[in-house]
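Protocol step 4 of 5: obtain the predicted structure for the target chain.
Materials: sequence only (see below). No template structures provided, no constraints applied. The aim of this step is simply to have a reference model before the mutagenesis design in step 5. Sequence pasted as it appears in the construct record:
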Amino acid sequence: MTKQTQQVLWSTRFAFILAAIGSAIGLGNVWKFPYITGENGGGAFILLYLACIALIGLPVLVAEITLGRRARQNPVSAMQFLAQEEGVTSGWRLLGWMGTFAGVLILSFYSVVAGWTIAYVIEAVSGSFTGLTGETSGALFGDLIGSWEEGLLWHTFFMLLVLFVVARGVRHGLERLVVILMPLLFGMLLVLAVYAAFAGDFLKGLGYMFNADFQALFQKCEGEACEFTAEPLLVAMGHAFFTLSLGMGAMMVYGSYLPKQASIMNSAIVIALADTLVALLAGIAIFPLVFANGLQLGAGPGLVFVTLPIAFGSMPAGLLFGAIFFVLLLFAAWTSAISISEPMIAWLTGKRGLSRVSASLLVIGVAWFVGIGSVLSFNLWSGETYQLFGKTFFDLKDYLASNILLPLGGLMIAIFIGWAAHRRLSEEELALQNPAVFGLWRWLVRYVAPLGIILVFLNAIGIF
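Step 4 output (structure tokens):
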């Protein structure tokens, strides 16, 4: 198999960084990170998470971008080419297939949650948050997910937003969108953080986020009886891995569009820092509002869709800032969904010769159709009759992608570049001037990252 150079590259390294940041920054940063921080005790968990980003997430991110730029092809063809180049089995192309399949699977349920953010923008603008209580806020969210017609409407609308961008290509679609949306996203998040400083209990929120109590972090207490638990460590490792969009081929295909002169290591560090900064800013914006209204921190996924609307509905200018918050969520979901769909679109255009528009229609159409089951999982298919292994269609897809396919994908990336491929592949692509930096990265990607991913994977499938 010969190497094929991509016809289209990012116009600049800055455009690539913005696109990759857009891929990494999604609902996980603004929706999931604050509530898992709340469930795991605050500041100590954040430090644990930052360590996992540095030791696991960043090394694998560098590895995935490196493989993408080396091959300049879609993930499936890239792994087949690289396996041939390194003289190893062509079975490595399964890594590309696994990530590409995981991306389409994730998009089919990710779009449903993203659709909820559109609905909540409208609810905020229309004044529905005013005077909400715990009961009425729960009922508002329950009515939304309980209506299959409304769920299908927003799922379809969000998919059309994604289709509009990806069909226009790398430069005219992806690049133009992220150059506009990413600065807006950061700007809105800063506005919300400033708002939280004045309208919320800012000092209590900061104290909660940055005061570390590691003894309490690793204790699981029931009544007065406490025992050691490693669960927060596994949660931190898992989130550090998933938040950077690793293992699904997105960073590999984005890396294939990266100009040769751009530094992979520097770009990856900027991406990881920006992703982490957004997660921290989200916590700074959310926790003071929750504390100021005496609401529950460990409210799980309902923190954003049930708890925060109560806070926005009872604070000065809350409806305006509530609308800004859910627009922010929508933007984060939009840029991530685009990257999730790109590996399969790249394969269809590069390997099957489809036009960009036809490939986009096919991928988005399949994800939309499979996503109908995700919509119905919260209403018509919510009963035990429609469950498999005790999980709804939505939960089953989430479990398969997040707990099995992505960890395996990340593990295989680390093993391929650290063990199967020759050292020269990494040396040539990274072109690092400092041998110590290269040596540290190679040690992390060969030993530390695989071990961390294996621990997350074994925990996810219930082995320990």
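Step 4 remarks: The two ends are 42 Å apart (CA to CA). The chain has a mean pLDDT of 88.
Proceed to step 5.
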